[in-house]
Amino acid sequence: YALFLFIAAGVSAVTAGLLWRRRSVPSAVPLVVFVGGLFVWSITYALYWLSASSPARVFWLDATYLGVVTAPAAVFVFVLYYTHREHWITRNLLLLLTIQPVLTLIILWTDSWHGLFFAGLRSADASAILDGGPWFWIHVVYSYGLLAISYGLLARQYMRSARPYRQQTAIVLFAFALPWLSNIIGIAGLNPLPDIDLTPLAFTLTGLILVYAL
């Protein structure tokens, strides 16, 4: 599992480098943030699988959230650029998009004081964080809400695009469908890699496909 994740981290690092060379294109910047978050997510999750002690595994699984919280907002900003809604991207919007991730990290790392994130449901043997307290579910709703809005904007863009651009938009839509598909596979119990969270691997494929499409 760690090997898969280190490969994903390497792919994310290379992808970020390619995108950084093209940072003059506005939509490239949120994609750099996106794949940078995936790099952190994959590396920390790999270190979780390589850790022998329970405290170390708990630490590295919590550390994955340094990457987890960046993905939804970065995707949303990218989609705003891609669908020609640059005028939506204001300082106030960017500030709002940073509030929830910062609060999530603070609440996660101080959970022992208040229990808002895990609510006593955390297990040292758990290989993914799939349940928790009120803030955990706020984070889930917020993240999937941003991704759903992003997907809706992309679908609308596809319907309104001229034929030469529809293929590109279709590829972008497919790329963002992969994380949803990975979650459906996990919920249905069809995960070919038992106990591992497929999301960082799926998002890494998303990043690769986006670079190809653009």
Tell me, briefly, the overall form.
Answer: globular
Distance between the termini: 30 Å
Q: What share of the residues does DSSP label as strand, in percent?
A: under 5%
Q: Outline the low-pLDDT stretches.
A: none
Number of helices: 10
- Topology as a string of helices (H) and strands (E): HHHHHHHHHH
Task: Give me the Rg, rounded.
Answer: 17 Å
Query: What's the story with the biggest beta sheet?
Result: none
Could you tell me the mean pLDDT? 91
Total beta strand runs = 0
Which structural class should the secondary elements be placed in? mainly alpha
Helix percentage = over 70%
Helix and strand arrangement:
Elements: H1 2-21, H2 28-50, H3 54-63, H4 65-68, H5 70-82, H6 91-109, H7 111-114, H8 134-160, H9 163-187, H10 199-213
Helix pairs in contact: 1-2, 1-10, 2-3, 2-5, 2-10, 5-8, 6-8, 8-9, 9-10
Model description:
The chain is 75% helix and 0% strand. It contains ten helices and no strands. The radius of gyration is 17 Å and the shape is globular. The mean pLDDT is 91.
